[in-house]
């Protein structure tokens, strides 16, 4: 964040300033977490579902906060200036919108049911080859995360690449009003957060809010192979570009080749490649090419950006744990991303068994049983040698798998994580492929941690044995 005075902040968000020297005190950063406050920062007290930042104002001041933004009914005394507002979360949105317009970067927004973060990272990797690019950190894509992302923009940044998430109709519209994107990307529309959206129609309505928010001079980049995403074009008042493999796309991939950890394809005769697992990365790559072209980037420069791309932790990330090939896809799960995980198993060419470890897909509402049963159908068709399932929907997954011919002795329903790990320990052999996936709330990363622990334990035993042999 560029340096601003408290007087500028007060002007941007309104409210009442309490304290002296508001026109002299400056800050170039803010924090909503009292534990991470650095000297010179503004502490923004947010009242959340579990914690109320107002309880930690004194701690933030002790850590060096030069000012505090708090709700107007806050009674705590402060040794630093306080700006009191009606509601701090709304004030944060207002401030970030003001700040975005004061620095005026070119803003690109991405949304979709799957692939938002990968697309954001891949587009940023490409643009960074030629432009100063800032992107949303981690998964900062909601009503608090997006404003914080905007406040990371510095004066030298040319482009801001932002992720917009939602679980209700109207949320993306609100985020787009704050960020004012000039290019909007929609990756694919699936059934993620179906429980909170209420219907598939509401999901489509929500994702289209980004398209509707684009100015007439903007560009909407849409997955042309996905009919629901393609349908959003009729809601655009700006230029629309479709990407995909079908002939009616503006950016069309041909000669697509998928190997274990390598994706290769051509666009208008130029051969691109990415070191990633899974064909589903193709949409993100095509979106990056479409954006790069809009900024006048050569195909060779775009490929350089692809070369710099690294898989994101917990998102289809290949890890070699001893002799095991582990696909860490534990960050989240929905029916579309589960389908992609099943496709990964089909392309594996290793010598060992294919093991799939699945946790519940959450937030699917009344359709949860059906989607988990269908997941079992897909797993049965994916060359999986053994399936481990954890969660309330485990029976549905296994029932679907068995209905499609999956052998009963090749599936294990687990009552707890410990029970799953015990059974996994009995099944694992050298050179196995292990795909781990589930919704965030299932904490499936515990399987990844356990695998590393098992390998470290094995290495320690080997080292002790070798040292003992030398002593003889």
From TrEMBL:
One of its GO terms (biological process) is cell wall organization. Residues 110-291 form the Mur ligase central domain. Gene3D superfamilies: Mur ligase, C-terminal domain, Mur-like, catalytic domain, MurE/MurF, N-terminal domain. Keywords: ATP-binding, Cell cycle, Cell division, Cell shape, Cell wall biogenesis/degradation, Cytoplasm, Ligase, Nucleotide-binding, Peptidoglycan synthesis. Pfam families: Mur_ligase, Mur_ligase_C, Mur_ligase_M. One of its GO terms (molecular function) is ATP binding. The keyword Cell wall biogenesis/degradation applies. Residues 314-440 form the Mur ligase C-terminal domain. Residues 28-96 form the Mur ligase N-terminal catalytic domain. HAMAP family: MurF (MF_02019). InterPro entries: Mur-like_cat_sf, Mur_ligase_C, Mur_ligase_C_dom_sf, Mur_ligase_cen, Mur_ligase_N, MurCDEF_CellWall_CoF430Synth, MurE/MurF_N, UDP-N-AcMur_synth. This is UDP-MurNAc-pentapeptide synthetase.
